[in-house]
Amino acid sequence: QVQLVEPGGGLVQAGGSLRLSCAASGRTLSRFAVGWFHQAPGKEREFVTAISRNGGSTYSANSVKGRFTISRDNAKNTVYLQMNSLKPEDTAVYYCAASLRYSSAAYIPRSPIEYDYWGQGTQVTVSS
Predict the structure, then answer these.
(1) For residues 91 and 124, is the Cβ–Cβ distance under 8 A?
(2) What pLDDT does 103 receive?
(3) I need a labelling partner for 51 at 20 to 30 A (CA). Which of 4, 6, 15, 106 fits?
(4) Distance CA 117, CA 128 (A)
(5) What's residue 48's pLDDT?
């Protein structure tokens, strides 16, 4: 089992920045590919970005490319999501998730069904 906690959400003006953290306990996060998803009210959970288990590859949704960056610090057992140039449409609950099921260290899961563990979510609100 692994427990994921996502501190760092909050309220920010459009054009501003926030950094979310995904801190793991119970197991070493370096064994997992880690992704970020968001879910706005009345909408399905959507893929935002993810990083491979070995940290060598990342993939982001087109809507956040060039604005959001995912990174990992295995020494701190934490994955980060740096969000810049935030837009009101980025407003959502953000979830981190960890996937252990793939043997390839470079694979990046992109669908929610590919993830095994989820954090409780953190609210990000971007005002216009």
Answers:
(1) yes
(2) 74
(3) 15
(4) 33
(5) 98
- For residue range 107-122, list pLDDT tens digits in order: 899 999 999 999 999 9
Report residue 128's pLDDT band, with 50, 70 and 90 as the boundaries.
very high
Break the chain down into helix, strand, coil percent, rounded to 5. Answer: 10, 45, 45
* Strand-pair category, 68-73 with 78-83: antiparallel
Compute φ and ψ for 103, nearest 5 degrees: -75, -25
Tokens of 83: 């969000």
Task: Tell me the residue type at 57.
Answer: S
Q: Mean of the per-residue pLDDT values for the chain?
A: 94
pLDDT of residue 106: 85
DSSP-derived 3-state class of residue 5 = strand
Other beta carbons within 10 Å of 89? 11
